[in-house]
Amino acid sequence: MFSAGAESLLHQAREIQDEELKKFCSRICKLLQAEDLGPDTLDSLQRLFLIISATKYSRSRAPSPRWTGR
């Protein structure tokens, strides 16, 4: 159904630990605060979408107190 590469990415996304996910979300927040949103930002957002989509159980993340909602 999926290629070997896609299967590998799905497996990695399903197995990500909470601490790794927190670090990754922190990195994405920093990327989104930059004035120049480059290809790294888009790649990271796509990976986050894959992780959330592939996770078998629900996760909750407390809102960041630094979020300004711009």
UniProtKB/TrEMBL annotation:
Residues 1-60 form the AP-5 complex subunit zeta-1 N-terminal TPR domain. One of its GO terms (cellular component) is AP-5 adaptor complex. Pfam families: TPR_AP5Z1. Signal peptide: none annotated. It comes from the Eukaryota. InterPro entries: AP5Z1 (IPR028222), TPR_AP5Z1_N (IPR056857). This is Adaptor related protein complex 5 subunit zeta 1. It comes from Homo sapiens. The gene is AP5Z1.
